[in-house]
Each structure stands twice: as structure tokens, then as C-alpha cells.
Amino acid sequence: MAPKNDPELIALRKELDELYNTLKEEQKKQADTTLEDACSGVANAPRVKLITRKLMKGHLNKVNSVHYSGDNRHCVTGSLDGKLIIWDTYTGNKMQIIPLRSAWVMSVAYAPSGNFVACGGMDNMCTIYDLNNRDSSGVAKMVRELAGYDGFLSSCRFLGDRNIITGSGDMKICKWDLETGRKTSDFIAHNGDVVSISLSPDGNSFVTGSVDKTCRLWDMREEKPRQTFFGHESDVNSFHPSGYAFATGSEDKSARMFDIRSDQQLAHYKPPTANSGFTSCGLSVSGRILFCGSDDNNVHMWDTLKNQHNGTLSGHENRVTSLSVAPNGIAVVTSSWDQHVRVWG
């Protein structure tokens, strides 16, 4: 490794910054209007009035991740108490509790079919459980342990029941065939830890976020990014594409909207007080409302078109770590370091 003050390295960094600034200038020249100006004739979105419909208690430590099932009713949460819990969000009841081999869970995923859940974290593994099959102790059966990462597992998403895609601290994206337990694809995706993956609605592309301060758009069939988006000054933590655009939330205390067709940032959303970094984000089904989970214990909401702060969801007593919008848009579920899970509707 070259030392940090290596002259060659400094020169290369400078060259990279200059290239990046040139790109930014070129993009600015192409931007003939702002999203707010283009939408000036659109009526303001009504204030979003969501309340806690269910406060779900059961975890005994920080809850790090939550994800909705495709049925809009069930969700899975993963906590540092070493448990996954499958919840019925309508009743608030626990449907299944799955004890994990490692308590350091950072990401959970529910298969859209509702048949499987996956999790992983500091154990450098992605573990898959079959919710329809129980082992001798009555717990959902572990069907796969996907090992072979040189870093923590930060994110995982099912591509149907047979395949899963994962992002990890070794800068890689991997795709797995769950029937054989083998990798079908394995490539370096970023210049830093991959921290988030979000699938496009049609399932043909996905967006990744990384601590290298970029997000990238990928085609499922390719191992080279289609587009790279710059802008955040800190870890880009979470994504939710909505067809032609995607939103991001970042620890740099801002959220942003990027447009895939114009290849650039459309909007920059700031909280009313600039003391909250964002840990997670999601869009309403229409794409009009952006939700961002924050380390100020709240969920912040914006009208994406008018770039107006639309309110906060308050109730958690510690940082909001993860949020998931129901596929049909009927509710939002949040998890927090306060050990609780809330369903807002």
C-alpha cells in the first residue's frame, strides 16, 4: 500500500476531482429546469396523516432491519438479540421466531412469494430459511448458508424463490442459485462497502449504494454498471427505485432523487433541522411521498415533486434503522434501536 501522502496518489486524486467537477458542470449545462420549477403548477400534496397502527414488541435488543412480504401483511425483522421474527402486521402478532447462529444481523429479506426469508451480517454469510417447513424443534428450516464473502453481508434481496442477490463489505455483488447453493455471478461493484441494494419494479435492474459515496444502476444480466450517480458526501444507505427514478437517503443529512433517463440528480431534500442523518428510505406507490428513517428517532416525509417537507412520524425512542413500504402502499413498517417495530397507516 502506498502511504497516504504519496505524491503520485495525491496527483491522481486531484485529477479525479477535476474530472468529477467537469462532469458536474456538463450535467448542469444539460439541466434546463429544476423539478420544483417544472412542477410549480402542481398542487401541493396534502399533509400525510399516518399514525402508529401497531406497536410490535418482542425483540430484546436493537432491531436493525425490516422487510415486507409480497402479501402486504407479513414482515420480517432482524435484531441483535439473535432472532428473526415474522410478524402479522394486521394483528401485531408474532407468527414465527427464528433463532440465529449469529446475533450480528444487519439485513433481512422476505421473498415476494412469502415462502422464504434471508438474513446476514457480521457472520459474513447469507442464511435462507423456509417458512413452510419446520425442523424437529418446530422452527423454520434453514435451507441454505451462502458463504464465501470477505466482508460483512450488508444487503440481500430475493429475485423470486430460486435466486437471491447480495451486497457485502468486500465491495462485491453476488447472485446465487438457491437450489444448488452456488454463485452464478460475483463481481466488484464499488470502491467501498456495498451498503444497499434495491430492485426495480420490473426486476430487470437494480441500484446499489456504497460508502464510496456513489450509487450505481445495474442490468441484471451484466457485470458492469449502466450508470454511476454522484452527489452524496457520505455513506449512501438506502434506495427504492420507482421505474425511471430512485431516491436515496444518506448519513450526510440529505435525501435525493436521481433520474435514470437524464442521468442526474433531480432534487435534494433536506430535513427542517440539519442534525439528522438518514439510515433508510422508501417511496409511496405513486412516488409522490418520500419516507426517510432518521437517527433523530423520526421518519421524515417529503413531497418529492414540490421538494417540501411534509411532516414527521414520531414515536420511536431511538434511531430508526430501517423502513419498508408495503408493496401495495397501504402501510409503512419501521424498526428501531428502541427494540420496537411500528406499523404506520
Helix and strand topology:
Elements: H1 7-30, H2 35-38, E1 52-56, E2 63-68, E3 74-79, E4 83-88, E5 93-99, E6 105-110, E7 116-121, E8 125-134, E9 140-147, E10 153-158, E11 163-168, E12 172-177, E13 182-188, E14 194-199, E15 205-210, E16 215-219, E17 227-229, E18 236-241, E19 245-250, E20 255-259, E21 264-269, E22 278-283, E23 289-294, E24 299-303, E25 308-313, E26 320-325, E27 332-336, E28 341-344
Antiparallel strand pairs: 1-28, 2-3, 3-4, 4-5, 6-7, 7-8, 8-9, 10-11, 11-12, 12-13, 14-15, 15-16, 16-17, 18-19, 19-20, 20-21, 22-23, 23-24, 24-25, 26-27, 27-28
Overall description:
With 345 residues, the protein is mainly beta. Strands 1-28-27-26 form a four-stranded antiparallel β-sheet, with no helix packed on it. A four-stranded antiparallel β-sheet has the order 2-3-4-5, with no helix packed on it. The chain has a four-stranded antiparallel β-sheet with strand order 6-7-8-9, with no helix packed on it. A hairpin with a 4-residue loop joins strand 24 and strand 25. The longest helix has 24 residues. It is globular. The model has no long low-confidence stretch (mean pLDDT 92).
